Amino acid sequence: MSRSAHPAGPRHADVLPEGHYSAPPTDLNHLDPKVWARTVHRDEDGAAVVGGIPVTRLAAEFGTPAYFLDEADFRARCRAWSDAFGQDADVFYAGKAFLSRAVVRWLHEEGLNLDVCSGGELATALSAGMPAERIAFHGNNKSPQEIQRAVEVGVGRIVLDSFQEIARVAHIAQSLGKRQRVQIRVTVGVEAHTHEFIATAHEDQKFGIALAGGQAAEAVRRALKLDGLELIGIHSHIGSQIFDMAGFEVSARRVVQLLAEVRDEHGVELPEIDLGGGLGIAYTSEDDPREPHHIAKALNEIVTRECEAAGLSTPRISVEPGRAIVGPTAFTLYEVGTVKHLEGLRTYVSVDGGMSDNIRTALYDAEYSVALVSRTSEAEPMLSRVVGKHCESGDIVVKDAFLPADLAPGDLIAVPATGAYCRSMASNYNHALRPPVVAVRDGEARVIVRRETEEDLLRLDVG
Ligand SMILES: *Cc1c(COP(=O)(O)O)cnc(C)c1O
Question: Which of 117, 307, 391, 422 is an active site residue?
Fold first, then answer.
């Protein structure tokens, strides 16, 4: 399309409105392997291909919007994490990032453990055959029913989050004649997000028991006294989308300090520490996440060093990556419905989904990238905002991105790195039908979570 066909025209760096974006990329057709699932590339016709299948075929078969998940990539990331941490550590996939029965089976086959944080996630895990002893149960307000179920089925650990819960879990376990393996979640006074971490004054949050003021030490004291509990270690989770290891360093040091205090006071060396998840992924080409083996090496070194200094034997380490495993493996495929040029501002590209399939942009101001994937284009870059179809002006999927100026209704665009916290946080706002998740591998595509239907919606509305 010629420039004159667009009254507002493509935007160039010198006339860009304010916003958080860098200069237009030199090649809009390039699919940066940093942000796209591993098997994604373009075929000779210019369409993006995942798991050997062009997106044009996937859209025709499964419709849009839809999430397409690269199964080989998911499995490879599971293996990279478990290989990096080796035999002396445990990797727990954080199921809240995205959980389905197929995912549970892949995790099981690849030898990972699983974190759940609700009865629903526990039920999903068990129904797909995850052995209970490989499940950790989290949450700051587990119901008595959830605790009872977890203890009955024999989950490997329950992560205790409050003084009331210490007593509650002990009571339930004892009444079932069991001794439940538990960890205590502590807040170490570190909060880490992306490139920054703050090492003071972040006890003000709902999770965990503060190390400060001796709270965590008191929790250990209580847990060690209760017959229903077997205290196996201390847990710390410091944030999300973290790139810098400095926050983990402070966290590990403070957790090891507590282990040393526990040894001094009680004469017991707790055998495990869990350093949580939160490892960052690339949502845009600017992000540079670390590889699992770097992370494993750094964490092992920190813990070994701190334990040596404290005269403790090194505990078994566990980590809980969610986003870092599933995030990069999927993209959301949308069809463009309208393209609206706002003179001197930007172009609004409306797609057939929105905040109901990706709430992260509205909720956290998250950044994403986007590409035209049904074809290539040599048109100029056009500063675009990708928005959904919901009745809400904050319904933004990608705040600022460059798409080719000849973008038109009917084109397919895809947002990469939507494997984590998109389907799992999806809603029925405006009675949207939540999109399917389709696993693609070796030229075969298979629905692992089907698209919702109007019958699904109406079934809950009992009138
Ligand atoms: C959310 C969460 C995780 C996973 O976080 P990611 O950012 O997805 O890696 C791990 N552990 C706990 C306790 C969590 O709450």
Answer: 391
Q: pTM to 2 decimals? A: 0.94
Q: Is 77 in the pocket of ligand 1 (CB under 6 A)?
A: no
- Domain assignments of the chain as residue spans, ordered by start: 13-70+328-460, 138-321
Residue 433 has pLDDT above 50, yes or no: yes
User: For residue 11, what pLDDT is reported?
Assistant: 44
Distance from C-alpha of 131 to C-alpha of 211, rounded to nearest angstrom = 32
Residue 10 has pLDDT above 70, yes or no: no
- Is residue 379 over pLDDT 70? yes
Pair of tokens at residue 245: 């290891």
391 is catalytic: yes
Q: How confident is the model at residue 307 (pLDDT cuts 50, 70, 90)?
A: very high
Work out the angle between the directed axes of helices 119-127 and 144-153 (0-180°, nearest 10): 30
Q: Would the CB of 185 count as within 6 Å of ligand 1?
A: no
Cα 155 to chain centroid distance, Å, stands at: 22
Question: Hey, what CATH topology would domain 13-70+328-460 get?
Answer: Lyase, Ornithine Decarboxylase; Chain A, domain 1 (2.40.37)
Q: Tell me the pLDDT tens digit for each residue of 146-156.
A: 999 999 999 99
Nearest CA to ligand 1 atom 15: 237
Q: Could you read off the pLDDT of 63-85 as tens digits, one per residue?
A: 999 999 999 999 999 999 999 99
The response to whether residue 279 sits with its C-beta less than 6 Å from ligand 1 reads: yes
Encoded tokens for 238:
């410091």
* Structural class in CATH, domain 138-321: alpha beta
Under 8 Å between Cβ of 92 and 112 = yes
Which one of 115, 187, 191, 248 would you pick to mutate in the ligand 1 pocket, going by the greatest count of ligand atoms within 8 A of its CB?
115
22, with CB counted inside 10 A (0-12, 13-18, 19+), is: exposed
Check if the beta carbon of residue 242 is closer than 8 Å to that of residue 192: yes
